[in-house]
Amino acid sequence: MTKDHYSYRVYADPSMADAFDAMRFSGPIGTMLAETQDRVLAEFLGPVDGRGVVDVGTGTGRAALGLARRGARVTGVDASEEMLRVARARAAEARVEATFEAGDAHALPYPDRAFAAAVSLRVLMHTPDWRACLRELCRVADERVVVDFPAACSAAALQAAFRRAASALGRPVEAYRVLREREVESVLASCGFRVAGWHRQFVLPIAFHKLVGSRSFTRASERVLACLGLLRLAGSPVTVVALRCER
Description:
This protein is an alpha/beta fold.
């Protein structure tokens, strides 16, 4: 896989690694995102005490450390040594035991069914070949796979289209993709997994909620939109859990 793709270049930057958590998970909405991610992971993975979990595209290890605190034997994998540097430092500071290793999501260095579960968050939207990455997650997972992605039928699609256009013009942006749920489900099915649950987070763009910066506004507005049926139709990001059909 070419290392010229932005997903390798951007996250290899030490300044990006050092600022990553503050950019993604600071402020009232960033904190809400982190809390929701933890809750959904706990629900979709179930009990993890003593079980092997691989977090692919672990970044600074936020999800991996949360799983390790719940007793999982966690291996965090990322292509960026700089992101892994921060993850290891965070683990040491928190006195949490987790393994962090360099690796590419398109070709994981583990045997088939090496882990009880495979997790990959905010990764498929950025990788050069999301289908290859999803197939790898399925290959190394014995029981279940949890991934998330921005939905094609959501406000995120507009931002994604803008960023891809800007990237084509030479602008230094993360030109992420949006995915269709049925395409994700199809790849999972081809690997012998069935979807067991979906979670859709927001109807309004995350950037808009962060601009407003009010948890009460976000909760109230999203509750109204959900009651109108819009969350089911256009909620994003989408998190999905899939179970292996035969073990």
